[in-house]
Amino acid sequence: MKALPNILTSMRLVLALFMFVALATAAGATPWVSERLTLEAQFTLQRWAFYAFVVAAVTDWFDGWLARKYDAVTVWGSILDPIGDKVLVCGAVLGLMSLGPQPLVLLPAGLILFREFTVSALREVGAGKGIVLPVTMLAKWKTALQMTALAAELFVASWGAFGLPHTPELLGPASLVAHTLFWLAALVTVITGAQYWEQTRKALAG
């Protein structure tokens, strides 16, 4: 049972890779494969990519909960968990962008990617100097908000794959909710990035 948290974390990495490849293939980015896909096959890939993202996002909560419940926190798990989160988020953002021009989500998507790479670099530099950046409560909420917003954006971007009618009465409100959540996630992401930056600056200065 103590190995289950690390298994779930590893599964999240596999699901993230599958999700991204499925979305990229559906968008026509896979040579010799995408060009042979029918519209129904593209829709099937988009649906399975969405399902993979949702399952992977759920494991992000369960692996940490199980690790604490069964006292199964390991160094390997502590390394894999944030990597799994960032691979899932960045893969979903890139996969979302591959589905077509989406001007309203381009800026928040870029901000999220920039922040994730910056914080990863800060952690690496800090680790080399013995500085540990603890995960804040706001950062945990940030991750949950990112996952929810990306799930909403992927669902809207794959609207036709779920057989839903492209009517303004349905697609309009769904898009508004998804975009609002995504912009809010980007805002919280930037705030937590600034907090980590300040923590690292103070630690290095001290």
How are the secondary structure elements laid out?
Elements: H1 4-26, H2 39-69, H3 75-98, H4 103-128, H5 137-157, H6 168-205
CATH hierarchy, class: Mainly Alpha
Structure classification:
mainly alpha
* Domain unit count: 1
How far the N terminus sits from the C terminus, by CA atoms, comes to 42 Å
Helix content: over 70%
Order of helices and strands: HHHHHH
Number of strands: 0
CATH topology: Four Helix Bundle (Hemerythrin (Met), subunit A)
CATH architecture: Up-down Bundle
Number of helical regions = 6
Q: How much is the radius of gyration in Å? A: 18 Å
Q: Report the uncertain regions.
A: none
β-strand percent reads under 5%
Overall 3D shape: globular
Major sheet, described briefly?
none
What's the overall average pLDDT, rounded? 86
How would you characterize this protein structure?
α2 (39-69) packs antiparallel against α5 and α3 (75-98) runs parallel beside α5. Helix content is 79%, strand content 0%. It is globular and about 55 Å long. The protein has a single domain (4-205), classed as Four Helix Bundle (Hemerythrin (Met), subunit A) (Up-down Bundle), CATH 1.20.120. The mean pLDDT is 86. The protein contains six helices and no strands. The chain is an all-alpha fold and 206 residues long.
